[in-house]
Write a structure and sequence with these properties.
Layout lengths: L6 E7 L4 E15 L6 E14 L6 H11 L2 H12 L5 E3 L2 H8 L3 H13 L3 E5 L2 E4 L9 H13 L26
Antiparallel strand pairs: 1-2, 2-3, 4-6, 5-6
Helix pairs in contact: 1-2, 2-3, 2-4
Length: 179
């Protein structure tokens, strides 16, 4: 058996979900001990961390089934999931969502509010909602981490820009008016 064919997996549980570390023996290399000059052989391994324990679903079929068994809020939820783009954004107004689903605007508003409270959605700006990539994402780990970073920044106070100018600051002092 070749050293490169040997693999060992170890699983690590995290707060949300599970990842796996794949340990692969790459081969052996010779290293020289600087103190003694002795040449020694060492195994070289490569450790990769991967997402693990995810179910593969066909979203369209799940949404059809959810729509059959659910009520008005489920209809809104399934439509939101169908409108999601590759960056986990939903670009629609509540008015348009009401027309698409034939659901009243108060139910649309209540559903979106509940989804935001459960951290499934965040409102990025009027007419733009962001689905939490920790709950639903289509794509690779790197892209998911970038989208997650952007999702977590929503709602944080923005840093104020500092203007840098060559002009010296001027302050005008005025004496208060006497009554």
């Amino acid at each position: 058996m070749n050293d490169k064919d040997l693999t060992k997996k170890s699983t690590i549980s995290k707060k949300k979900g599970t990842t796996t570390k794949k340990v692969k023996v790459v081969g052996t290399e010779q290293f020289t001990n600087n103190q003694t000059g002795e040449v020694e052989n060492f195994q070289v391994i490569k450790i990769e961390e991967r997402d693990f324990n995810f179910d593969k679903i066909w979203l369209f079929h799940i949404l059809e089934s959810m729509d059959l068994i659910g009520g008005q809020k489920m209809k809104v939820m399934t439509t939101l999931l169908q409108l999601k783009n590759r960056d986990n954004l939903i670009i629609t107004t509540q008015k348009d969502l009401s027309k698409l689903t034939n659901v009243s605007r108060p139910i649309i508003s209540q559903t979106i509010k509940l989804l935001c409270e459960s951290n499934f959605l965040k409102k990025k700006q009027p007419g733009v909602y962001f689905i939490n990539p920790e709950m639903l994402f289509n794509g690779g780990k790197t892209n998911r981490m970038n989208i997650l970073f952007e999702y977590n920044r929503i709602g944080e106070p923005e840093e104020k820009e500092t203007k840098i100018s060559d002009e010296p600051e001027t302050h005008i002092l005025t004496k208060p008016k006497e009554k």
